[in-house]
UniProtKB/TrEMBL annotation:
Keyword hit for Cytoplasm: yes
Keywords in alphabetical order: Amino-acid biosynthesis, Cytoplasm, Dioxygenase, Iron, Metal-binding, Methionine biosynthesis, Nickel, Nucleus, Oxidoreductase
Cofactor dependence: Fe(2+); Ni(2+)
Name of this protein: acireductone dioxygenase (Fe(2+)-requiring)
Amino acid sequence: MVEAWYMDESQEDQRAPHRQRPNRAVSLEQLRRLGVVYRRLDADNYETDPCLKEIRRAENYSWMDIVTIHKDKLPNYEEKIKTFYEEHLHLDDEIRYILEGSGYFDVRDKDDNWIRISMEKGDMITLPAGIYHRFTLDENNYVKAMRLFVGEPVWTAYNRPADDFPARKQYMKFLADEA
């Protein structure tokens, strides 16, 4: 099951857990109020999983690919890792399904504090368009993930500040309505 917590302010290795002491856990309900959707699926059978098929149909996820993030598998690995960890947003939802390995998605809460979400095999996350976030591998240095999109894939990340985009404004309205 996914685990999330508020991050400490340490500047040590981004791949470390960065838990506050004492730990301040974040529930799935708290993530939901930020627009983050979590699902648990059967990664061993992703090619034939009827649950994944139904999610793709219901959410209109018509495009999919698989990416492996590891120094031996990803061209320009060091540059990509730095880019993924830059705080940014997208104009569309970001959907990731972990098939192997593990990593962290960090998202900002309504007060602009970082929440770290630990993702491992079988975890699927949807980050809403307009949420500031970033990704990093954990200390295992490996993840294989499915990327899902509605329509053609759009890879553009807009580094913070990006508050003038309609997606960000819509997300901020969503947060205000949730309050």
